[in-house]
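Hey, can you fold this one?
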Amino acid sequence: MVTIPTVSLNDGTAFPELGFGTYTLRGDDGVAAIEAAIGAGYRLLDSAVNYQNEVEVGEAVRRTGIRDELIVTTKVPGREHGYEETVRSAHGSLERLGLDRIDLYLIHWPNPSVDRYVETFRAMIDLRRDGKVGSIGVSNFTAAMLTRLIDETGVTPAVNQVEMHPYFPQDALRAFHAAHGIRTESWSPLARRSELLSEQVVADVAAAHGVSPTQAVLRWHTQLGSTPIPKSATPARQVENADVFDFTLTDAEIRAISGLERGRLWDGDPETHEEM
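Sure. Predicted structure:
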């Protein structure tokens, strides 16, 4: 079993430097994959209402018998923005998960044309006060959106989960996060369905450390201060993905991988992309 180190969120929560993505993991096979990941050492699980797998995540958590060691994440979908809607959404997630608390609760997308994410965050603050939710944060928010949340609620999100990979290192947003005590979390950390893992610079860095290209990229994330959440249903790959803390990339290697930057890979600009 791999031991994944932690950092402290702005609310004092010990937060793993690498987590497990569960997108598309459903049914019995999904439960088995999530349970295997927990057995491999993952302690941060990422889910969402829109992934339609909260039931599977909850079942896997119960089967492992180590509920108190785990941070279970889920997210408010766009169609449930608003104060009362978010409260109902949280209770629905708790019921599907079969848990008495959501450890990390995120707004999935800001959906600026709807303009209800501040109301949504106010509900999350109250859910945290009532013990239904642990840490609260957001996903796919810009610096301006984060500033508005902080200014209007007085509460700084603990996490912002965003698209991040060597093709899109998010330098400016990560700097904003660091200045405000917000933890960056990376979705699609390996730039799925792209040629990232076959890039020569990634291969060279991996060879220099005797690791796989996947491991080199995931270590790049952690050394930049972001928590990547790779997904795999294969136990051996799950272990490989988590085993990235016994080598250190040089500053030059980090710069070389970051030099692959070319922008977003998908239509995910938070100013225009919206999901319900």
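The mean pLDDT is 98. Let me know if you want another pass with a different chain boundary.
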